[in-house]
Design goal:
This protein is mainly alpha-helical and about 230 residues long. It is built from 9 helices and 7 strands.
């Protein structure tokens, strides 16, 4: 489980003591979360927890309180460092909440299930052929490299321990490292990645979405408001 309250504690410890290692732990963890499979690379927001040590294969449920608490951690990391990366991730999480979880009555729903069509994660995973049918050749080459897409799939089934042909989008290297290796300007790479993300988001929105838990829980809404 991501445990944002530990990160918030470390940020306060760093602020009071000046202990650089505490801040370093927070930054490394927050960047790993954003790059990993536990984060929804297409629609944003964080899944409930990882089922493996690499934070690649998540339990795909999304809880409102997880979004609220991790957004606090990214916000305070931005306040501590001034690095716009953390502000960007905070805004992504809030974009997910406002786009997918806000009730017409104004409250915020409590969760989205992990399953759709009787299969966990089906809404979120991709085959290489599916992506090929959506992106242009230029976008496809870059997207597959950045997000580690392969024909056979990029993770093992928990029960069979065999690859499934499906892919969970995740990054092993930062955008700046990819830009250097691909010999492309970083801003150009970001533009291509965002254009590709929007195309896949539009395609994904046509899928059967996981059921939404439409309870509006006062305490969880309070966390979001804070």
């Amino acid at each position: 489980f991501p445990t944002p309250f530990k990160l918030l504690y470390l940020l306060r410890y760093w602020k009071r003591t000046g202990e650089g290692n505490a801040l370093g732990i927070v930054e490394r963890t927050l960047r790993a979360i954003r790059m990993g499979g536990v984060y929804d690379q297409i629609g944003f927001g964080i899944h409930r927890y990882s089922t493996d040590a690499h934070w690649l294969v998540p339990h795909f449920e999304k809880m409102l309180y997880d979004q609220a608490l991790i957004a606090m951690a990214y916000t305070e990391a931005y306040q501590a460092t001034g690095d716009p990366y953390y502000r960007q991730v905070t805004e992504e999480i809030l974009e997910y909440i406002t786009t997918e979880m806000v009730s017409p009555c104004g409250g915020v729903y409590s969760a989205e299930d992990a399953d759709s069509e009787g299969e966990e994660g089906k809404f979120y995973i991709w085959t290489k052929d599916e992506i090929m049918g959506i992106l242009s050749p230029e976008e496809l080459d870059i997207f597959n490299t950045v997000y580690n897409i392969s024909k056979g799939g990029n993770y093992m089934d928990e029960k069979t321990r065999k690859k499934t042909g499906n892919n969970i989008l995740h990054m092993k290297k930062t955008v700046s490292v990819h830009a250097s290796e691909l010999s492309i300007q970083e801003e150009s790479l970001k533009h291509i990645m965002e254009r590709s993300r929007i195309k896949l988001l539009e395609a994904r929105d046509k899928r059967i979405r996981p059921l939404q838990d439409d309870k509006v829980i006062t305490s969880w809404n309070g966390l979001v408001i804070v």
